[in-house]
Amino acid sequence: MLIKNNLPAEDTYVTVADDAPLPDGAVVVSLKRFRAERSDLLARNQKLGIVLDSDQSPEALGSDLDRLSLVVLEFPKFRDGRPFSWARILRTRLKFTGEIRARGDFLYDQIAFLKRVGVDAFELPPSITPELFARALTEMTNVYQPSADGRTTIVAMR
Amino acid sequence: MPQLLTANRLIDGRVLYWRGGGWVENLDEAEGFTDAAVADTALAAAKEFVARNLVVNPYLFEVKDGRPVKEREIIRAAGPSVRTDLGKQAKYGSTGTTSPAAPERDDDVSI
Amino acid sequence: MYRYDEFDARFVAERTEQFRFQVQRRLNGELTEDQFKPLRLMNGLYLQLHAYMLRIAVPYGTLSARQLRKLAEIARKYDKGYGHFTTRQNMQFNWPKLKDVPDILAELATVEMHCIQTSGNCIRNVTADHFAGAAADEIEDPRPVAELIRQWSSLHPEFSFLPRKFKIAVIAAPHDRAALRYHDAAVEIVKNDEGRTGYRVWVGGGMGRTPYLAYVVGDFVEKPDLLGFLEAIMRVYNENGRRDNIFKARIKILAHSIGEDEMRERVLREFQEIKTSGYLQVPDEERARIAAYFAPPDFERLTDEALPTDGDLGRWIVNNVTPHKQPGYAVATISLKPIGGVPGDISADQLDAVAQLMDDFGLTEIRASHEQNLVLPHVRQKDLPAVFARLQVLGLATPNAGLITDIICCPGLDYCDLANARSIPVAQEIAKRFADLDRQEDIGELKIKMSGCINACGHHHAGHIGILGVDKKGVEYYQLLLGGSAAEDASIGEIMGPGFGEHEIADAVERVVDVYLKLRRPGERFLDTYRRLGMEPFKNVAYGEQLHAAH
Ligand code: SF4
């Protein structure tokens, strides 16, 4: 199930394998395919997303980022914490305003962290219901450090 | 060499040994396997207990004359060698013997 | 000492409930062990040989009497009546039950304590000089900086799933009592040429399988920039640290494979980026707010006393008492290394009694040191005889601080699931060999540090004499290392050669010490003699040959 901006949402993107033909409409492709077919993909004038594997930094995208409306951060396993940095860089440094989506092996217990670094969409496994998702965001009321979510920190509240 | 099957209980972490389709706490009461195939069958059965979230990390280890070969398993079966008043040694005596030492205050949780 | 405000209190209370929910889901089977393990470790909970082990954070080692009493209560109620102080200034309980841990955390929260980030692949609890606020040589108290880092790193959204653990230490004195250069990162409070205070930041130290000493990446980081600078280091590490091999995942491997120049450049580049995109600055008021909690106690106007140097009291004073910056005061080390005891262990009754002693002598705080001792930072010199007498009754007056029997020792195979060999019995055997105080004092400063496996929790690389337990086909063996130091003259010990058996290692240590006694020059510590002569003369006798060498 897709959760976007904290609510269940319909997924309007189709993720396309590297060797599959492109359907009409919004698609998500790998960074590799994006590089190989960059001009064709941009010329479609459709919404376009790419998937970043956990070892792919968004900084490599350069100004192409402006043409993307979605970046999917892939978690190969939940212990791989690189996507947390990618999300934060996307939001804080590269000022990306499109959708950042978490996909793959992440846990309920990481949702609040992901939210804080700027992820706003989640492809939830069946074990995480929308109710649980909402609960994850209420566990810790306050935060000590600034991040990409613009929340007021404890230091500022003091 | 004969083998025993061991695991830790999830809820309190205590060391367990396999006997007849279930678990005991005292190594001296554990079931010894001389046949590797039988041991593997028991290990597979133990994994059912993992799936039911009752134990973690079951594995087989070797014993000789009823005593573990490796120091690690001797200590797991007994308790800290530097605190003989604590652990299983306090409850059941040292492994391979039957003389119980002073019982330890411990409300162990059973499965 | 630092006191929680409403925000800190709520944070810790909510973290406890968060963990309670994690435990509940584990017991229900909603979390597998593979999923639960990193989560429980982030809250200090291990599964060891006999049971779970809970590691409680003692931020930068500072404790109040009230906290000691709570630890004693937990030891009795949920454990087996004792606890263990570790080399990271924490306390461990060896027998808690998983189902009880949320309740233990709730109890800890009532005295402003917790287990947050005492393990796991995250920024660990921050350590600091255990003489902070009392040492005559410090520029300022390092603990406000440590507290600032503690808060910033608590549930950091970006850096909680790092390639591996990340340990930070803070010191503010030229004499390093916190093993700075063995940390993933370290902050040294320094004054620049203009007399302004700032931070020298180190990166890339660590022990374990491949020990390295840290080097400097920030020569002088301005005060408001510290957290931004640390964030730059963390990001370079999170992005580039190896995740394919657990033994190569620490920042020390990255730092020493790309080298000092490249590391500096990457950190500075990242720091510039952080600055450009608007970054975390610590306002002066916040630093002042935190620092105020660490204001020194109201010292009485006293003058220095003539302290006894003979008899039992005199011995204890000579060995365990250190000068204080305030006239008439002293720093007293309570050794947790009684001859034949378990290094770092303390009973619930002793915890209570030490709390009572603190109350009776007006002592508001006590410290846990990375050397696994306790430190009373602000004792009136005129109280020393009475304090000593009380400690004697408690079995806590061993006058061996810094001597050969003041051994750092990890729990080893008696408790630890990762161990290759036992370490405590070896420490006990060595301590018994050298129990004679005249002999200990003649030997002088000699730091023995021992680990039960390559993870090096017992800092064996940093021992003047280091001992490492290894496993040879299920049998315990011990390697000897010489020449390590964790102080400002930091060095990594050198392995002597093949390991010694369980019953040979104490003999080998004794022979090595005898060589030192024969070959030392006046005023030389063991370490100095080793550095002058190298491994050869020690190796020649350690394996049982005769000592021929003479001057
Ligand atoms: S050094 Fe090894 S044996 Fe000792 S406590 Fe650490 S992991 Fe365990």
Description:
- Chain A has helices at 31-36, 38-43, 82-93, 111-117, 130-136, 154-157; strands at 2-4, 7-9, 14-15, 27-30, 48-52, 70-75, 99-104, 121-123.
- Chain A is an alpha/beta fold and 158 residues long.
- Chain A has one domain (2-157): Aldolase class I (TIM Barrel).
- In chain B, a hairpin with a 5-residue loop joins β1 and β2.
- Chain B has one domain (3-92).
- Chain B has three helices and five strands.
- The longest helix of chain B is centred in the middle third of the chain and has 16 residues, at 36-51.
- Residues 96-105 of chain B have low confidence and may be disordered.
- The N and C termini of chain B lie far apart (29 Å).
- Chain C is built from 16 helices and 21 strands.
- In chain C, the strands form four sheets. In chain C, strands 16, 17, 18, 19, 20 and 21 form a six-stranded mixed sheet that branches. In chain C, strands 1-2-5-4-13 form a five-stranded antiparallel sheet.
- Chain C folds into four domains: 6-109, Sulfite Reductase Hemoprotein, domain 2; 142-291, Sulfite Reductase Hemoprotein, domain 1 (2-Layer Sandwich); 311-394, Sulfite Reductase Hemoprotein, domain 2, CATH 3.90.480; 408-542, Sulfite Reductase Hemoprotein, domain 1, CATH 3.30.413.
- Chain C is an alpha+beta fold and 551 residues long.
- The model of chain C is unreliable at 546-551 (pLDDT under 50).
- Chains A and C meet through α3, α4 and α6 of A and α1, α2, α5 and α6 of C.
The strand count of chain C comes to 21
Terminal Cα span of chain C: 53 Å
The main sheet of chain A comes to:
8 strands, mixed
Mind telling me the CATH class of the largest domain in chain C?
Alpha Beta
Q: What ranges of chain C have pLDDT less than 50 throughout 5 or more consecutive residues? A: 546-551
Q: What is bound: which ligands?
A: iron/sulfur cluster
- Which regions of chain A contain 5 or more consecutive residues with pLDDT less than 50? none
Class computed from helices, strands and strand pairing of chain A: alpha/beta
CATH topology of chain A: TIM Barrel
How much of the sequence of chain A is in beta strands?
15-25%
